[in-house]
Structure formats: structure tokens, C-alpha cells
UniProtKB/TrEMBL annotation:
<dbReference type="Pfam" id="PF16953">
    <property type="entry name" value="PRORP"/>
</dbReference>
<dbReference type="GO" id="GO:0004526">
    <property type="term" value="F:ribonuclease P activity"/>
</dbReference>
<dbReference type="GO" id="GO:0001682">
    <property type="term" value="P:tRNA 5'-leader removal"/>
</dbReference>
<comment type="similarity">
    <text>Belongs to the PPR family. P subfamily.</text>
</comment>
<protein>
    <submittedName>
        <fullName>MRPP3 ribonuclease</fullName>
    </submittedName>
</protein>
<feature type="signal peptide">
    <location>
        <begin position="1"/>
        <end position="19"/>
    </location>
</feature>
<keyword id="KW-0809">Transit peptide</keyword>
<keyword id="KW-0479">Metal-binding</keyword>
<keyword id="KW-0732">Signal</keyword>
<keyword id="KW-0496">Mitochondrion</keyword>
<keyword id="KW-0378">Hydrolase</keyword>
<keyword id="KW-0862">Zinc</keyword>
<dbReference type="InterPro" id="IPR033495">
    <property type="entry name" value="MRPP3_PIN_dom"/>
</dbReference>
<dbReference type="GO" id="GO:0097745">
    <property type="term" value="P:mitochondrial tRNA 5'-end processing"/>
</dbReference>
<feature type="domain" description="PRORP">
    <location>
        <begin position="10"/>
        <end position="163"/>
    </location>
</feature>
<dbReference type="InterPro" id="IPR031595">
    <property type="entry name" value="PRORP_C"/>
</dbReference>
<dbReference type="GO" id="GO:0030678">
    <property type="term" value="C:mitochondrial ribonuclease P complex"/>
</dbReference>
Length: 167
């Protein structure tokens, strides 16, 4: 299958999966998605449009700005899904504190996903509800960690915690 068609089927899978949770969905895309072609099937687009709201930007637009605006405008509980790591947007931020706050916001709002081995199904990892830093309570420390080194993206954080208690 061509990569674009695979992406289209992944989008369909993602919309179908998220719609089952009775969540209000907004899909940001480009106008070329509305043209029936070998890569974009009109009947499948119509089926997705019954499950989610869509906004189609111009084909040459930078859709990340729409994504960030829509997420921020929708309120603090809004989450977003994208394959983009938003590195360019972080790089445009003027100071390290602002970049840190953006990464923290991103970790709390971006839903990560992985593809199944055969690439047919999407598995979602929920956004974190807590800050992934060493946390202490009295004589107890909670330290996030990974079993082995693996490359990660800035919004991905360890999902395992080591609990140490002083006696």
C-alpha cells in the first residue's frame, strides 16, 4: 500500500477508536483530503465526518498552528493526537523556561500512539495527569525510570516508577 493510503487508513482507525469513547473529536486536515482519489476515498471521509468534526486548511498551510490553537481554545482538558513532535515550535520559544513549560503542557495533552507490528491498528497511550519528575512525600521518593535505554520523543516519558522509602 502507498504510504498516503496507509496514513488514511490509520486516520480512519484512530477516528473510529476515539469516537467509541463518546469524545468530541476535531480532525484537522488539508483540503486535498476532500478530493476523491486513490489516496483519499470520499465514502470513508463521509463516514469519518459522521464521527468527528473536521476543519480543512489550505493545502499549503502550516496545520500545526491550527492544532495548537484549537487545543488551547478548547480548554484545559482537551487532548490532541499528532505524529508531529512540535520541535519547530519549541525551538521558536525564546527562553528555556518557556520551552520547559511548553514540553510540560505537551506531555499532559498529547496522546501518544504506536502502530501494531503489522501496522494495521493504533494503540493509544493516554496523556499523563502528573508531572514526570522525581517526587517526594515525607520519607518516600518516587523516581520515574525506564528498564533499558531507548530513544524517546520529548513528550514521551517513562511509565514506570521506582518507589524508595527511608527507614
Amino acid at each position: 500500500k502507498p504510504l498516503v493510503l496507509l496514513c488514511f487508513l490509520q486516520l480512519f482507525d484512530a477516528v473510529s477508536c476515539l469516537a467509541k469513547e463518546n469524545t468530541r473529536l476535531l480532525v484537522l486536515g488539508r483540503k486535498h483530503m476532500l478530493v476523491n482519489s486513490s489516496n483519499w476515498k470520499r465514502e470513508i471521509m463521509k463516514e469519518m465526518q459522521n464521527k468527528a468534526d473536521f476543519f480543512f486548511a489550505e493545502n499549503i498551510s502550516e496545520d500545526d498552528a491550527f492544532l495548537l490553537y484549537a487545543t488551547l481554545q478548547s480548554g484545559k482538558h482537551c487532548k490532541f493526537v499528532t505524529r508531529d513532535f512540535l520541535r519547530d515550535h519549541k525551538a521558536c520559544l525564546s527562553d528555556s523556561l518557556t520551552r520547559h513549560l511548553f514540553r510540560k503542557w505537551q506531555r499532559g495533552h498529547q496522546i501518544a500512539f504506536t502502530l501494531s507490528v503489522e501496522g494495521k491498528h493504533i494503540n493509544f497511550l493516554p496523556a499523563l495527569r502528573y508531572d514526570c519528575v522525581v517526587q517526594t512525600t515525607g520519607d518516600t521518593w518516587h523516581i520515574p525510570y525506564k528498564d533499558a535505554y531507548e530513544e524517546k520523543h520529548s513528550y514521551e516519558v517513562p511509565r514506570k516508577w521506582l518507589c524508595i522509602q527511608q527507614k
